[in-house]
Amino acid sequence: MSYSLTTLWFDRSRYLPGVLAVGFSALLISLQFGLLLGLFSISSLPIDHTDADIWVGAPEVLAVDLGRPIRENFLAKVAANPEIERCEVYLQGFSYWSKPDGGNELCMVIGCRLDKDSLGRIRELTPEMASRLSEPGAIVCDESDLDRLGIKGVGDTAEVAGHRVRVVGLTKGIRSLAGPYVFCSVNTAKPLLRIFPEQITYVLARCKDPKDAPMVVQRLRDQGGVSAFTASEFSIRSRMHWLTKTKAGIALGYAALLGLMVGAVVTSQTLYAATAASMKEFAVLRAMGIPRWRMATLVMSQAFWVGIIGVGLSIPAVHGLAALAAAAGSEVILPMWLQVGACTVTMVMAVGSGVVALRSLRQVEPAMLLR
Amino acid sequence: MAMSPLKSSLEGRDLRRSFGQGSMRSTALAGVSIDLYPGQFSLMMGPSGSGKSTLLAILSGLLRPDNGTVHSLGQDIWGMSERQAEGFRLRHVGFIFQGYNLFGAFNAVQQLELVGRWGMNMGYWEARKKARHILDMLGLGKKKHLRPAEMSGGEKQRVAIGRALMKEPELLFADEPTSALDWGTGEQVIELLRGAARERGATVLCVAHDSRIIPFADQVIHLEDGQLKGVVYPDGKSGRPDREDDRSHSSKSVLPGGEDEGWNKGKLGGRLNRTA
Questions:
Q1: Which of A127, A289, B1, B91 lies at 20 to 30 Å from A231 by C-alpha?
Q2: What is the DSSP string of A193-218?
Q3: Chain A residues 143-172 with a CB less than 8 Å from chain B
Q4: A280, closest residue in chain B (CA to CA)
């Protein structure tokens, strides 16, 4: 075992605060970003849960839920591209839900084609639900939103934008951000969104070869008059918009920075105190001419292992807490890049703390050993 | 002028050192000259505040004198740059201090092995082998895997000696190595230091308070108020430099029971007779 690991294990109670501080920092960064990613993934849910390769909307659309009406004849323009296999209309926008016993609630109406190959129908809508949605005024919402919408379940009625709607089915696990999702047919959606009959919100398209999507998107952009995105682009754009628009990203950045700073202070103080406690031992080595960099390497190696152990402890803790959050209804998304990023940032913090602790070695003076 | 049969390995000349400034300034050394010889165990004694540790620090290259020179193994150590001095200490100097200053986390082998690997760029197995060998020689064969907390004071000091011997230094400095030990254990430690001089030809300088160590020494240097009060050669014969210039500038030889008031008169004479 290396000298640094031997010291760490022997003096584990002394190093424990540093290890925990590193672990806590990694945990904080991963969970905060994971929670936020989970939260804002809701905003791109209509993109992520459907099969379109390309989304075409009004110019400079900021996020999928902020689409503005465009003319329906854009459908033909998109369809004219030879790479396109299928394209269809799609409506999405905010409206007002009037609860049966009074009171209004903002809701997000989504109107799409309902057939088997539909590009805009989320996967959670079963064929039975799709079939029932073809009736005028039929809607499907998520069971988690029943209270918010003031209804009890299938068969209940309410009003959206003054139009009577009837619940014909309930999805599971489709969470919403600003307002509950209300799924319906294109024909039902138009009056609920108060848009003209010849207007739609998006044109969705699928390419014969999905690899052609970026090329078609670029061509549509070049033609002007619309904004076009590949599905993944639009998904990221939607999430990033809400992340930046709500300033949640900045708040999170500060919180993560604060966590890192606390971690850095505790870790550097732990390492500093541990090094200071061995000052006389180091002084003997200095007296014997052993260069300072050897001791600095030991301190840096200790910082490295404190980082590795702290980060190592944080990984199962992050996944455990993410599972707990999921059980409580908050999704925590932990992509590999986030986990690697959090571990890297925390390791840099730990090693940086080691550099700060090195100043204790400057006080090592062999003459201090002589009385 | 008679030539010396023994060439000194360490020469300090007119060493002066003060601490503090202005009215707080105190003189720790007021012009001390001294010679040490290879293969000899030299003992430096004197009351508290007499400048013993300061002189040891200056002679060993740890503390820069205000004035004077130190030639160690023929090199002017205070004429060197800090890096050169560090390199010199690395190659030639070992230290033993009153506080054993052993790393709490490491066992006896690791304490020595560390010096081999960090100080002499030895490989792991080479350093380990040498550390074990030295510990065996120091009678710590069965204590090799104990940490400092599991050892007695004497054992810890022997490990500290082993650490100093790991580099096979030509100059070995010990600052009150027996102060925290009972006499029986301290005697063993002194024997080890004397052995380092006799068997390895090292120049050993030991600062101590305990007059019972005197009979073990080849020369006893007595300091008082920052000045050299005398150098005694307990065996009266061997290793005594007879160069005229040595006598004239480095010391006046004072034998026990002689004119020096501050020297342990009758008591010391008895001790010396033991080894004579």
A1: A127
A2: HT--TTEESEEEEEESSGGGHHHHHH
A3: none
A4: B101
pTM for the structure as a whole: 0.77
Q: A3 and B53 in contact by Cβ < 8 A?
A: no
| Dihedral sign from CA coordinates of B217, B207, B56, B130 | positive
Average pLDDT of the residues in A295-312: 95
Q: Which helix (H) or strand (E) holds A250?
A: helix A248-277
Would an 8 Å CB–CB cutoff place A280 in contact with chain B? Answer: yes
Nearest alpha carbon to residue A216 among A82, A23, A20, A334: A82
A276 in contact with chain B, both atoms CB, cutoff 8 A: no
CA distance A223 to A170: 41
How buried is B25 (Cβ within 10 angstroms: 0-12 exposed, 13-18 middle, 19+ buried)?
A: exposed
* Among the listed residues A20, A88, A11, A37, the one whose alpha carbon sits nearest the alpha carbon of residue A235: A37
Contact A367 B110 (CB under 8 A): no
- Residue B231, min C-alpha distance to chain A (Å): 22
CB contact under 8 A, A369 and B56: no
Report pLDDT for A240. Answer: 86
Query: How far does B28 lie from chain A, in Å, by closest CA?
Result: 12
Three-state SS for A327-347 is HCCCCCCCCHHHHHHHHHHHH
* Binned average pLDDT, 10 residues per bin, chain B of 276 residues: 66 93 87 93 91 92 93 93 91 90 94 93 93 90 93 90 91 89 84 88 92 91 91 64 40 35 31 32
Cβ–Cβ contacts within 10 Å for residue B8, how many?
Answer: 22
Count helices and strands (H / E) in chain B.
8, 10
Angle at A246 between CA A235 and CA A43, to 5 degrees: 30
